[in-house]
Amino acid sequence: MTTSNSSLTDKADPIVAVQRYVQLGLEYIKRDDLHRARKHLDRALKINPDDASANAALGLIYHQEAEPVTAEKLFLKALEEDPDYTRGRSYYGAFLFSVERYQAALEQFQFASKDTKYIGRSQIFSNIALCFLKLEQTEPAIEAYTKTLRLDRNNGRALSGVTELLIQTHDYDRAQHFYNRLV
């Protein structure tokens, strides 16, 4: 008879176990397998009900299931537990944007953008640009797209977005520059 000990057994480090359950949950969310995702996130929350990453990921599931009240409660709980959790703040910003609360979404993304070590920072600036567009503020949207392109030189959406905005503002020389990069 053999036994094995993995990072997800009861004797494992609870912090590591929670992280791994959340990672599994997020992978299932990406695959749109919300049932399996929820199962892993529930396991993480059973170990640590206050874990910010597990609560935020569960918020994603409720958001996809069109349960905005529950989703928002989970995002807020995650940020209450860890106000500097950039990924959770970005999830919450995307949620706010989807329910057309653009100013609140902008505030979440701006806060998240201050984390200079966050890997997805260029996407945060693209999200900031989209918020400014919804708020009909063209110049700050151009600035946000430009920041995206400083962080991710070949970001097609930002190149397209800034080109279109520069054409609308009659800044054709700069628009041509970004268009050439896009092509």
Structural account:
- This protein is 73% helix and 0% strand.
- It starts with 13 loop residues before the first helix and ends with a helix.
- By secondary structure, the protein is mainly alpha-helical.
- The protein has helices at 14-30, 34-47, 52-64, 68-81, 86-98, 102-112, 121-134, 138-151, 156-168, 172-182.
Short description:
Helix 6 runs antiparallel to helix 7.
Topology summary:
Layout: H1 14-30, H2 34-47, H3 52-64, H4 68-81, H5 86-98, H6 102-112, H7 121-134, H8 138-151, H9 156-168, H10 172-182
Helix pairs in contact: 1-2, 1-3, 2-3, 3-4, 3-5, 4-5, 5-6, 6-7, 7-8, 8-9, 9-10
Instruction: Please state the average pLDDT score.
Output: 93
Q: Bin the helical content.
A: over 70%
Q: State the helix count.
A: 10
Percent of residues in beta strands: under 5%
Uncertain segments are 1-5
Q: List the secondary-structure elements in sequence, H or E.
A: HHHHHHHHHH
Class from secondary-structure proportions = mainly alpha
Shape: elongated
Largest β sheet strand count, sense and barrel closure: none
In total, how many beta strands?
Answer: 0
| Termini separation | 63 Å
Oligomer: single chain
Primary descriptors:
183 residues; mainly alpha; 10 helices; disordered N terminus
